Amino acid sequence: MTLLKKWLFRLVLLAIFTVALLLASDNSTEVPLTFLDYQTPVWPISWWMLAAFVIGVLFGTLLNTWSNTKLLLSARNAKRQAIKSAQELNDEASLLTSDPN
User: What crossing angle do the helices spanning 2-26 and 45-98 adopt, rounded to 10°?
Assistant: First the structure.
């Protein structure tokens, strides 16, 4: 079953690669992008699409890393606080059980 999944995954990747290659060859018209008065170098549309995809992946990875780090630090602080609270409870319980009054 694992072998079938592996080959099916490879087949899907090959199909996606083929479609991307066809789209890239169809989008070979060279265009410049204009931002206000600045005009970028002339590149094929497929290059612009690829650049936008790569920038999106990098930006998404950066945001994901930042978010995960923030959550990890928050969880670490909560765990420390829980350990500290449990230790205080144990200290209070030991005081109560050792006090004869």
Answer: 140
> Is residue 7 a contact partner of residue 22, using CB atoms and an 8 Å limit?
no
Reported as half-sphere exposure (CB side, CA atoms, 13 A), residue 52 has a value of 8
Domain boundaries, the chain: 2-98
Structure tokens at 61: 């990875």
Which residue reads 């060859």 in tokens?
25
Q: What is the pLDDT of residues 49-90, one digit of tens each?
A: 888 888 998 999 999 999 999 999 999 999 999 999 999 999
Helix (H, G, I), strand (E, B) or coil at 30: strand
Tell me what pLDDT residue 101 has: 58
Q: Can you tell me whether residue 40 is helix, strand or coil?
A: coil
* CB distance 45 to 28 below 8 Å: yes
pLDDT at 80: 96
Cα–Cα dist 31/47, whole Å: 10
* Residue 100 scores a pLDDT above 70: no
